[in-house]
Amino acid sequence: xxxxxxxxxxxxxxxxxxxxxxxxxxxxxxxxxxxxxxxxxxxxxxxxxxxxxxxxxxxxxxxxxxxxxxxxxxxxxxxxxxxxxxxxxxxxxxxxxxxxxxxxxxxxxxxxxxxxxxxxxxxxxxxxxxxxxxxxxxxxxxxxxxxxxxxxxxxxxxxxxxxxxxxxxxxxxxxxxxxxxxxxxxxxxxxxxxxxxxxxxxxxxxxxxxxxxxxxxxxxxxxxxxxxxxxxxxxxxxxxxxxxxxxxxxxxxxxxxxxxxxxxxxxxxxxxxxxxxxxxxxxxxxxxxxxxxxxxxxxxxxxxxx
Length: 306
Fold this sequence. Notes:
Helix 5 runs parallel beside helix 7 (266-275). It is built from eight helices and eleven strands. By secondary structure, it is α+β, with helices and mostly antiparallel strands. Helices cover 27% and strands 25% of the residues. Among the domains are: 22-44 and 101-189, Beta Barrel (Ku70, Chain: A, Domain 2); 209-252 and 260-305, no CATH class. It starts with a helix and ends with a helix. Strand 9 (157-164) and strand 10 form a beta hairpin.
């Protein structure tokens, strides 16, 4: 049976799989040990978010952003240099080679100079960029494996610095399964202090009923079989369905929104939360059974049997 035009178009939109691109390569150092590594982004291309282009509503042509000089008009990439504005309208030009000469051998390498307990660094300092570190060459396999195993056995993470993307980065290096990962961190000076964002909170007594109910909600929704893979991007899937429907000239039927029960006050919201722990959670998340209620039920059965 011959393929339809839509099927052929859809097939042409599928891009062939490419080998992952090396984001950085260099030496990893700890103590007097050094070995070459390569860094690959942990983000999977097939999991990338759907991106939209800006179009001209009238003719549907794609909007382009052209780099241009206000005096000479559009310029090519090789005509552009980096400059720092030291005074209004006054710039000093900096060549990439000049920046490269500022780096010492230590800064060119990923140097681990501190080891911490995994709980010592708050996730607040993670900036969202993470990479897999792999040995670069056969000779790097042994020191890489020794370092990975040592971190795993001692349950420690490494903290270090190196230069990437034109600036000195502070990073966290940790074992993950059978590989080293590198998480880019924010410097302490880059993290906003929360003190001025939250005003004075009301005092909550340890025996407050609202506090006890909130604790009960948390306890009941603990999942002993938690699997992060259960969380999927439902909205992304809906956007993809919408795009496919539009490409094929179909109309996508949107489901009716579920009505949330009206909650009058905090106490009522907490009580209802306790009673609805067995209902289906949002998305693909399965409902966790309350541990305390299950334990009590089993104990009651045990007493009856005896």
